[in-house]
Design brief:
globular, 6 helices, Rossmann fold, binds NADP nicotinamide-adenine-dinucleotide phosphate
């Protein structure tokens, strides 16, 4: 299983470090690409060119972004997670969201046949 991590701030980096210590294969995406390459060097793993590419290849996608607009567009925009996702993905969103925002994402994700936590 390959786990994708989108957003390599404090939360994303801690998650990638933990996964790498456990020997899990990880694929990384970050808006500021240089941070993804730095993390790939430290913890191993490979860098995806877009959220869509990451979700095409990873069974589980962990999203660790700051802010609703950043989160929403990363799922929904062109080149975003839902455009690229292969079949039956599990999205685990670790960001701080309002309940209504989480429900909105849940609706979009479920409508495409994926699961959302
Ligand atoms: N689940 C938990 O236990 C837990 C604990 C603490 C925090 N959180 C939540 O986790 C989320 C991330 O926290 P953090 O401390 O890791 O934040 P952070 O260190 O500020 O990192 C923010 C991340 O979001 C990305 N980002 C910000 N604006 C963006 C935009 N407009 N488009 C695309 N990417 C954008 C940043 O990318 P760049 O590198 O390109 O700027 C970076 O990867 C927050 O919602 C926070 O409340 C959760």
């Amino acid at each position: 299983m390959e786990i994708g991590v989108v957003g390599l701030g404090r939360v994303g980096r801690a998650l990638v470090t933990m996964l790498a210590h456990r020997g899990t294969k990880v694929r990384l995406y970050n808006r500021t690409e240089v941070r993804a390459h730095e993390m790939a060097e430290i913890a191993g793993g490979s860098v995806a060119a877009s959220p869509a590419e990451l979700a095409r290849e990873c069974d589980v996608v962990c999203v660790c972004l700051a802010g609703w607009e950043a989160t929403r567009t990363t799922y929904l925009e062109k080149g975003g997670l839902l455009e690229g996702a292969g079949q039956g993905r599990l999205f685990i969103d670790m960001g701080t969201l309002e309940p209504a925002q989480a429900r909105e994402l849940h609706g979009h994700v479920n409508a495409k046949g994926h699961r959302f936590l």
